[in-house]
Specification:
Elements lengths: L3 H35 L10 H20 L3 H5 L2 H22 L8 H12 L7 E4 L2 E7 L1 H25 L3 H27 L2 E9 L7
Parallel strand pairs: 2-3
Antiparallel strand pairs: 1-2
């Protein structure tokens, strides 16, 4: 009996995380496009990318470090909300970098997911093909999007493990998590900026993409 509850909680957490990731890309696209439509003077420019990355890096480090100060079982309850906010901020950062590079009109869900995964160092399957200074973006069916979100969820699970460990080492863990989250956010931003400098073209086909192994 004692082994059933942890499995149930893990399943609940996994479902909550998958649901949050699944909606995060749509949320960012709708929220940021609406914001820039209403506030065109606030559109980020290319020379502001470095400061933009630094701002998101600081914010995510503060979120992760602060949440990791909550010890034990109380801290465990904060893991999913913490990671959801950190990842949504990272996705939003990638979107803003795309806008700064003049790619706002091309920022489809497929492109945003592909750039984000590639910037994380993960495979985006055949969603993006990068060749000769050009990115080819393929349209994806809902089933493919779900597969890719599931793959992203697997990567995020590694972050859950790191964050969970930090709850039992509150002060050392908080500093380590803040540093690690800031490092990851900065790397994602810099890699996304490199990718957005490439020429981007759409492939209108809808494909059942076979995900490449990591």
């Amino acid at each position: 009996m004692s082994h059933e509850t942890p499995r149930s909680e893990e399943s609940d957490d996994s479902g909550a995380l998958h649901s949050a990731l699944n909606s995060a890309f749509d949320y960012v696209i709708e929220n940021r496009s609406d914001y820039y439509r209403k506030n065109p003077s606030n559109l980020p420019q290319l020379d502001s990318v470095s400061g933009l990355i630094s701002s998101y890096t600081r914010n995510n480090a503060a979120i992760s470090g602060g949440a990791s100060l909550i010890p034990g079982p109380w801290g465990m309850a904060a893991v999913i909300p913490e990671l959801t906010l950190v990842i949504r901020n990272q996705i939003q950062m990638v979107y803003d970098i795309g806008v700064a590079n003049g790619k706002q009109a091309q920022l489809t869900k497929e492109l945003l997911i592909g750039i984000f995964l590639t910037a994380m160092g993960s495979s985006a399957g055949s969603l993006l093909t990068i060749h000769g200074g050009k990115i080819l973006v393929r349209r994806a069916s809902l089933q493919v999007i779900q597969k890719i979100i599931a793959m992203l969820g697997g990567r995020v699970t590694q972050q859950v493990i790191k964050s969970t460990v930090s709850k039992w080492l509150p002060f050392v863990g908080a500093a380590a998590m803040a540093t690690w989250t800031g490092y990851m956010t900065k790397n994602i931003g810099e890699k996304a900026n490199e990718l957005f400098k490439l020429e981007i073209e759409d492939d209108p086909q809808t494909l059942d993409i076979e995900l490449k192994p990591e």
